[in-house]
Structures are given as structure tokens and as C-alpha cells.
Amino acid sequence: MSETRHTARLVLSGHIIDSMILPQVMDVVMDLGGNFTIEELKVGQHKTDTSLCRMEVAAPSAEQLERIVRAARQLGATAESEAPARLETVDKEGVFPEGFYSTSNLPTEVLLDGTWIPVDNIEMDAAIAVDREARRARCIVFQGAKPGTEVVVGYEGVRVTPLERSRKTEIFSFMASEVSAEKPKKVLIAAIAAEMREVRSSGGRIVVVAGPAVVHTGAGIYLSRLIELGYVQVLFAGNALAVHDVEAALFGTALGVNVESGEPSEHGHEHHMRAINRVRAAGGLTQMVESGQLKSGVMKSAIDHGVDIVLAGSVRDDGPLPDVITDMVVAQQRMRASLAGVRLALMLSTMLHSIATGNMLPAGVRTVCVDINPAVVTKLADRGSWQSIGLVTDVESFLRELALVIETGAHG
Q1: Is the same domain home to 185 and 311?
Q2: Mean local confidence (pLDDT), 286-304
Q3: Which of 140, 222, 292, 332 has its CA 20 to 30 A from that of 356?
């Protein structure tokens, strides 16, 4: 008696060879106990051509087949005869319907009334809200789940598009797959600078996510220079970066240590508290700049050049400064609103803040992760093979070289 086989037909299209999506789907099928038959394979003959694959997938049980199809969908496969997206309504504020589709950061579409609708503001770990009348779909987080909102449930009628490998900035694809302290940093930094120039010349925006080590290592002057040259449009940081930046401007110290000599300063442990007090007395960082009390530093450069600044607080903050957002939900909302048009992110010596930012970014945004700790770089750089670079290095030497290359290019 023949064994019952449960089958489904999957379709993959796009840059499925470059992106390794086809072998990944094959691996998933076999790893989950199924097998496949390639029914049609058209491989693009030129670099810009797309490819197409139709395959039949078989599994011993309906449950196994469902797991296989679900995993293949997450990689970009669609069913040959695609059913429309299934929608359910939010009943309780802040709660998605059970079985909601949980997004990745890849470009995503939903099938609505026979038409594939792109999902706006795509980010990982969110849900998809659909407005039938406007024929629009968008990502929402839990705070966006309002009673009456229709949300996509299940996997049918959802497709994701794997990223195409960059052919213009090969350094990203060449160096992104590993994290090492032994990479040719001058070559990498020159490539990052070239990418930054391309982003700016085409109207894209650059976000810098910076930790207080930028100030502690004396790298603040180089970040200020990048801001002044027009290569930073958005700055995400916490209370500490701003506090120690102001401390350095007022007292020449960071955490009480002289920024230039590296020597402890007498009563230096008080300096950051006195800096906080002066900013609070002025009413905020902008008021301090306008009154002439803050004459240098990263925050002054950012304010002077109209950078979109979001300072998000934490439970360990001294003060904090009046500019720091202490409500984390509000801080997330401000950060998301500031990321429109961002095409490149520099994540500099701050793990938690960088992870938070990375989780809000679409997969196609280039990310450059810099930290002296290899474990931090590995965690931050693990966002796709071709759009991330991780550098294990001192942030001061990185920013010094980057500012030099950018400035030389600007004057060249």
C-alpha cells in the first residue's frame, strides 16, 4: 500500500540565486523532513536579471507540510495559487489577534482583493495592519493595536522579497560575513566613506547611534566634524553621551578624566553632575547653545546643523538632562519617526541602543557596527550577509580615520 504524500507547490522569484534563497529553501524542506521536485527553473543570464523557480514540496503529514511551507514563506517563497491575506480585528487595545503574522525586516507584501499591496514602515517583530478602504498596509507595534484595526493573521497572502546583493559596494558583501579584529580597516573605512557620499548625494539620510565612549576616547571632535560636513542627519544616544559631551565642553573632562591628557582631574568626579545642573538651569541643551554657555561638542554641532536628535533615557541615568525622553514607548515612537529616509546607520560603541535601532530598520539599510568588544559587534552585525559591516576597533581611531577620508574627499 503506497504511503500518503501531502504536497504543495511553491514559487520563488527575484534574485534567488544571488541571495542564496533557493538553496536555503531546499535546506529547509529537507531539514523538516520533506523532499522537493524542481518543476521549472529559469536562471537570469545577466547581473540585473531575475530568476524563477517552481517546485513541488512533499511531506509525510499535513502538519509537516504546513511547517515546511511556513518556513519557506519566511524566506520569500509563495504558494502557486495564493489565497488572499486573512484579516482579524483587534478586540483589546495593545493586543494583536491570536496567530497574527509576525514580520521580518525584509520587504513584505500582502494579497488584498487580488492585488499585492506593499507593507509600509517595515520592521522586524511587528504586525501588519490593513486599511481596506485606502488599500494600504503598514507595520504596527503593540501600542498601535487599537480596537477595530484589521491585522493580518497566518501566513497565507503574505510574501517577502529577499535582498539583492549589492553590486556597487562590493566591500559590504566581501567583508560582512565575519567579525574580526584583523580586517583591513583603512580599506573598509574608505568603502564606508564612499557609501556615505553616495547616500548623501542621492538624498538619503545617515543615522549615528553613539555611546558615551565616543566622548571618553576623545572621538567627539571627529563626530562633530562629520556633522559639520553634512554626513549626519539623525543622532540617537542616551543621557550619558550628552552629559559627558557637555562635561567635556565645560570642564575638559569626561567622567572626571582630562580628555586630552588622560589624567584624573581634581574633584573631577563632580564634573558630570555640575554639567547636568547647568543644562537643567538653562532649560535644555538648545537653550544652553543659544545663550552661549555651550561653545563646543557633539551636541552643539548637532543643534547648530539641524540634526534630528533623540536622547532616550534609562533607569541608571543621573539627572537626567531635560532633553532626555524617559518614557520608553515615547522614545521608540520618536526614534521610528526619525528614521524615515535613513539609508545608512553608524552604530558606535553602544550595544543596547544599537540593537534597539537595528530592530526598527528595514533590512536594506546599511549598518556599520563598531565596538572594541567582538561579542558586541557580532550581535549588532548579525542583520544579514550583505548590508552589514562589523569592525572590532577603538571608536576613536575609526572616527578619526573616517572624518579624515570624508574631509579629504570633500576637498578633493
Answers
A1: yes
A2: 97
A3: 222
Same domain (yes/no): 266, 402: yes
Looking at the fold, whether 2 and 144 belong to one and the same domain comes out as no
Q: Which three cell numbers stand for residue 89?
A: 480585528
**Do 73 and 144 belong to one domain?**
no
CATH number at residue 196: 3.40.50.10690
- 180 and 293 housed in the same domain: yes
Q: Is 398 helix (H, G, I), strand (E, B) or coil?
A: helix
More confident residue, 92 or 45: 92
86/57 same-domain check = no
Q: Which of 2-11, 70-79, 346-355 has the lowest mean pLDDT?
A: 2-11
Rounded CA-CA distance 410/397 in Å is: 20
Residue with cell 512533499: 58
State whether 126 and 248 are in the same domain. no
The pLDDT, as a whole number, for residue 19 is: 74
DSSP 125: S
Query: Could you tell me whether strands 127-131 and 150-153 are parallel, antiparallel, or unpaired per DSSP bridges?
Result: antiparallel
Distance CA 279, CA 1 (A): 82
Q: Which one-letter amino acid corresponds to residue 63?
A: E
d(CA 196, CA 231): 7
CA distance 343 to 231: 12
Query: What string of DSSP letters covers 167-211?
Result: SS-HHHHHHTT---TTS-HHHHHHHHHHHHHHHHHTT-EEEEEE-
Residues 145 and 8 in one domain: no
**Residue after which a domain boundary falls, among 80, 102, 134:** 80
Q: Is the pTM of this model over 0.90?
A: no
CA angle (215, 365, 110) in 5-degree steps: 140
Per DSSP bridges, beta strands 205-210 and 234-237 are parallel
Do the bridges between strand 342-348 and strand 366-371 make them parallel or antiparallel, or are there none, so unpaired? parallel
Output the domain CATH number for residue 148.
2.40.420.10
Q: How far apart are CA 240 and CA 248, in angstroms?
A: 12
Number of separate domains in the chain: 3
Would the pLDDT of 169 be above 50? no
Among residues 244, 205, 249, the alpha carbon closest in space to that of 350 is found at 244
Q: Which of 161, 158, 163, 123 is nearest to 144 (CA)?
A: 123
> So what's the pLDDT on residue 410?
60
